[in-house]
Write a structure and sequence with these properties.
single chain; about 450 residues; mainly alpha; 3-stranded antiparallel β-sheet; 16 helices; globular; cytoplasm; Rubisco_LSMT_subst-bd_sf; S-adenosyl-L-methionine
Length: about 450
C-alpha cells in the first residue's frame, strides 16, 4: 500500500504547533475533498485522520489528535471496499459468470479497475481512482538495465514478477475480447499491457487481506483481496504495531492502535516484518534503518569458498540442499545469521568430521579448527559483499549523473544497497570482535 510522492505547501496553523515540520496537511486539495464526500455517501465518518505530505514518506495520513494504545484509528464500512463482490455486481458480472475457464479473483479485479478508469467521469469509483498512483515502482515494472543492479535473489524475483504480469496479460486477451459489447472502442486499445501492469500493481501494493467465500464463477485461487479507499493512504513502519481485521458486527474493516502516535504525527501501520528486498518487490519502496533487513548470500557465493579439490564437496552440498540450508542465508544488523554460520560450518568439516554433519546442523561445536575455518570464510564473504556493494553503488552514482532527469528506480536501488552496505559493515564489526574475543 505504498503511495505516489509529491510536494505541497500550506502555512496555516503552523504557528500553533511543531506538527507541520514533518507533515503538511493536504485535506484542502480537491481530490481529497471529493474522496471524503464520496466516502461519506457510503457511510464513512472520520475526524481522526487527514491526508498529508511527509518529508520522509511522501503521501500519508496525519493524526488530528494524539492516539493511544487500543484507540480505533479507522473504521471503513463494507460499502467503501472494492472486492470481487463489487465486480460481480457491475456490468462485468455477467461476462465473468459466463466465461470458461473461470477467471481468477485477481484478474476480475484488474479488469474492473481498467474498465472503471477507462469510463472516466461515468465511473462511480472515480473519486477513488483519481487518488490512486498513476505509476508504480515495483521492480517488475523497471527498465532492464536497472533490474540488473539489484542484488540476488531480488533480481530473479523481479524478473519473475515481470513474467507473471506478462503471462497474465497473454492468457487474458481472449477474455478481454469477450467484453467488446460493453465498449465503443476496440478492447485491444483499452486492455493494454501497460493498463494491466498498472491494475496488477494497484492490487499487489494496496489491497488489504480479506477472505471471501469460494464462488463457482472464479478459479480456485484464493479470493482474499479488498481495496480500501482512504485507509490505503496509511504508510508502513516496521516499528509500529496495529490490530487490523474485518469486524463482522459493524460490517467494517477496522484498524486499532497498538502503539502511541503524537498529535499531527504520521499514523503508520505495519504491513508485516518484511526486509527491504521484500518491501521493494511487493510495495515498491525501501524503509531506511529497517530492523528486519538483511543481506542475502547466494549459494554461488558460498561455493567460491569451498575448496574445489574437496572430495566431499558433492556430499556436503547434497546434505545442505536436502535440509534446506542453501536458501535464506543472511547477514543482519547483529551479524551473520545462524543459518549462514551453520551452512559454512558444514562446508568446513574435515574429511574425518563429515560423519558429524547431523550434530553440525543442530548447532554443536565439532572442533576448534572447524569453528576457526567457518568464521574465517564468513569474514571473507562479508568483505567480498562489501566490496561488491561499493562497486554497484559507484555504478549507480555514475548512471544517475548521466541521466538528464531523476530516475526513481535508480534512487530506490541505491537506497537498498546503501542499507545493505550498513548491514554488512555492522556484520564485519561483529565478526572482528568475535575473532578478537576468540
Amino acid at each position: 500500500m505504498k503511495k505516489n510522492r509529491g510536494r505541497t505547501g500550506r502555512k496555516r496553523r503552523r504557528k500553533h504547533s511543531q506538527s507541520f515540520v514533518d507533515g503538511v496537511n493536504c485535506s484542502h486539495k480537491l481530490e481529497y475533498i471529493k474522496l471524503k464526500k464520496w466516502l461519506k455517501g457510503r457511510g464513512f465518518e472520520d475526524s481522526t485522520l487527514r491526508p498529508a505530505e511527509f518529508r520522509e514518506t511522501g503521501r500519508g495520513l496525519m493524526a488530528t489528535k494524539a492516539l493511544q494504545v487500543r484507540d480505533l484509528i479507522i473504521s471503513l464500512p463494507e460499502k467503501c471496499l472494492l472486492t470481487t463482490s463489487t465486480v460481480l455486481r457491475s456490468c462485468l458480472g455477467g461476462y465473468i459468470k459466463n466465461w470458461k475457464p473461470p477467471v481468477s479473483p485477481l484478474m476480475a479485479l484488474c479488469t474492473f479497475l481498467i474498465a472503471e478508469r477507462h469510463a472516466g467521469q461515468k465511473s462511480p469509483w472515480k473519486p477513488y481512482l483519481d487518488v490512486l498512483p498513476k505509476t508504480y515502482t515495483c521492480p517488475g515494472c523497471w527498465e532492464h538495465d536497472v533490474v540488473t543492479l539489484l542484488p540476488e535473489p531480488l533480481r530473479k524475483k523481479a524478473q519473475e514478477q515481470r513474467t507473471t504480469i506478462h503471462e497474465l496479460y497473454l492468457s487474458s486477451k481472449a477474455f478481454f475480447s469477450s467484453l467488446q459489447p460493453l465498449f465503443a472502442e476496440d478492447t485491444g486499445t483499452i486492455f493494454t499491457y501497460s493498463a494491466l501492469e498498472w491494475a496488477w500493481c494497484t492490487i499487489n501494493t494496496r489491497t488489504i487481506y480479506m477472505k471471501h467465500p469460494q464462488r463457482e464463477w472464479f478459479s480456485l485461487e484464493p479470493d482474499v483481496y479488498a481495496l480500501a479507499p482512504y485507509l490505503d493512504l496509511l504508510n508502513h513502519s516496521p516499528n509500529v504495531q496495529v490490530k487490523a481485521a474485518f469486524n463482522e458486527q459493524t460490517r467494517s474493516y477496522e484498524i486499532w492502535a497498538n502503539s502511541q502516535c503524537k498529535k499531527y504525527g504520521e499514523v503508520f501501520i505495519c504491513y508485516g516484518p518484511h526486509d527491504n528486498q521484500r518491501l521493494l518487490l511487493e510495495y515498491g519502496f525501501v524503509a531506511m534503518d529497517n530492523p528486519h533487513s538483511s543481506v542475502y548470500v547466494s549459494s554461488d557465493t558460498l561455493l567460491k569458498y569451498l575448496p574445489p579439490l574437496d572430495k566431499q564437496r558433492k556430499a556436503k552440498l547434497s546434505i545442505l540442499k536436502d535440509h534446506d540450508f542453501l536458501e535464506n542465508l543472511t547477514f543482519g544488523w547483529d551479524g551473520p545469521s545462524w543459518r549462514l554460520l551453520t551452512a559454512l560450518k558444514l562446508l568446513s568439516l574435515g574429511a574425518d568430521e563429515l560423519a558429524c554433519w547431523r550434530r553440525t546442523l543442530l548447532g554443536d561445536v565439532i572442533s576448534a579448527r572447524n569453528q576457526e575455518q567457518s568464521w574465517k570464510i564468513t569474514t571473507q564473504i562479508c568483505h567480498l559483499l562489501i566490496e561488491e556493494t561499493q562497486q554497484v553503488l559507484l555504478q549507480i552514482s555514475q548512471l544517475r549523473r548521466s541521466k538528464e532527469t531523476p530516475n526513481p528506480q535508480l534512487a530506490l536501488v541505491e537506497m537498498l544497497h546503501l542499507e545493505g552496505l550498513k548491514i554488512l559493515q555492522k556484520s564485519a564489526e561483529v565478526l572482528c570482535h568475535s575473532n578478537l574475543a576468540t
